[in-house]
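Q: I'm a student working through a structural biology exercise. My instructor gave each of us a protein and asked us to get a predicted structure, then write a short paragraph describing it. Mine is Transcriptional regulator (TetR family protein). I'm not confident about reading structure output yet, so if you can add a plain explanation after the tokens, that would really help. Here is the sequence I was given:
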Amino acid sequence: MKSLTRKKLIKAGARAMLAKSYNAVGIQEVLSEVDVPKGSFYHYFSSKEEFGVAIVEYYGEQLAETIRKRLSDIGLSPWHRMKEYFLGVRSYYASAGCSEGCLVAKMATEIANASPRIRMALKAEFDKWVGLFARCIEEAQALGEISPEHDAAALAEFIYTSWEGGLIRMQVDQELNSIDNFMAYMFEYVIPLRK
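A: Happy to help. First, here is the predicted structure for Transcriptional regulator (TetR family protein). I'll explain a few features afterward.
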């Protein structure tokens, strides 16, 4: 029961922080949403910082699972898997609005400097996602779809960092232009399909 309530708190906290921010979300707000009595929070987390780390890890693993699924689709070549992943996320934002963005990127800009524990959790999730893209790039290079002259890990880092920057700009502009620019330049000029 304790682990189920803990997971409910993490999910509610992730939703609230994605809608607002880490600092704008109060513990009582999250407790009320999942109908947990006031004062019970510390049965599940030692601090709001620990709660923030748990939220980053939860959100990060959810996204990693989506990336794994899309990048392992054997019905598509590796290059096409990457492109389809980003197109799928673009489609989500087109239908859901452009204000949400990525919770990990949002927390990185807000709280990483103030909390070394949260910063390290954020880094671990970014590294996990980049690693998944690096493996897909290596596969694409082995098939001749992407130039082998690029270091796969460095290229994956560049691609994913550019994507996150595009998401931040999308939230500021409240439109998809930055995402569309990312798609056009990334797949036409940075990693064009070689065959």
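A: Here are two points you could use in your paragraph. DSSP finds nine helices and no strands in the chain. The chain has one domain: 49-190. It's a good idea to check both against the output above yourself.
Q: Great, thank you!
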